């Protein structure tokens, strides 16, 4: 069976004492505890790594696993929560400079502490201002652009045109007769 933990073949019958000392450690971990990790510290020796403290992660250090509170990924260091975080990904660099309060647009947030119910989010003039919103609270409202920024509006009826605004719908009807003259 693949990935099965097996005792190696000693090549013959061994006494218990010979078996225990056959590879320097045997397969007994004298003080193992829940959360410990078994790993190969060489090609012939299995070693126990005690569980790490809360918030630590497993990292490779000099070719062996080790717990760390501040792992290094490439040239970018990730610090513990509450400190500056930075990571490289396929889209560029993500830098979070605040973990409490309002996350600014420049740092990937909205710049807002709350959002309006039943609203559409809009950007402001500079692109780094807090994200704004336009509430759509009346049946049939749509967002209409303008020089002062987007606004909620409804389509109004005109001559021979009727508009019925409903919940999540707008019905536009034509009551004009169309006469086509052919010459």
Can you tell me about this structure?
The chain is mainly β and 183 residues long. It has a domain at 1-63. It contains one helix and 14 strands; from the N terminus they run H-E-E-E-E-E-E-E-E-E-E-E-E-E-E. The chain has one helix at 16-21; strands at residues 37-40, 46-49, 57-61, 64-68, 72-73, 76-77, 85-89, 92-96, 119-122, 132-135, 142-144, 151-153, 161-166, 169-174. Strands 1-2 form a two-stranded antiparallel ribbon. Strands 3-4 form a two-stranded antiparallel sheet. A hairpin with a 2-residue loop joins strand 13 and strand 14. The longest helix has 6 residues, at 16-21. It is elongated. Residues 1-5 and 75-91 have low confidence and may be disordered.
Please describe the structure with a list of short key phrases separated by commas or semicolons.
single chain, 183 residues, two-stranded antiparallel ribbon, two-stranded antiparallel sheet, 1 helix, disordered N terminus
């Amino acid at each position: 069976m693949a990935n099965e933990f097996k005792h190696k073949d000693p090549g013959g019958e061994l006494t218990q004492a010979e078996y225990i000392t056959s590879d320097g450690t045997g397969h007994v971990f004298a003080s193992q505890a829940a959360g410990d990790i078994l790993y190969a510290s060489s090609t012939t020796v299995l070693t126990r790594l005690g569980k790490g403290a809360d918030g630590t992660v497993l990292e490779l250090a000099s070719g062996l696993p080790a717990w760390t509170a501040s792992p290094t990924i490439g040239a970018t260091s990730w610090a513990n929560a509450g400190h500056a975080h930075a990571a490289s990904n396929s889209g560029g660099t993500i830098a979070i400079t605040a973990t409490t309060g309002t996350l600014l647009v420049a740092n990937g947030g909205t710049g807002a502490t709350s959002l309006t119910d039943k609203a559409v989010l809009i950007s402001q003039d500079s692109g780094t201002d807090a994200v704004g919103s336009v509430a759509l609270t009346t049946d049939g409202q749509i967002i209409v652009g303008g020089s002062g920024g987007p606004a909620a509006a409804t389509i109004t009826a005109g001559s021979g045109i009727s508009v019925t605004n409903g919940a999540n719908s707008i019905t536009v009807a034509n009551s004009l007769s169309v006469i086509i003259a052919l010459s």
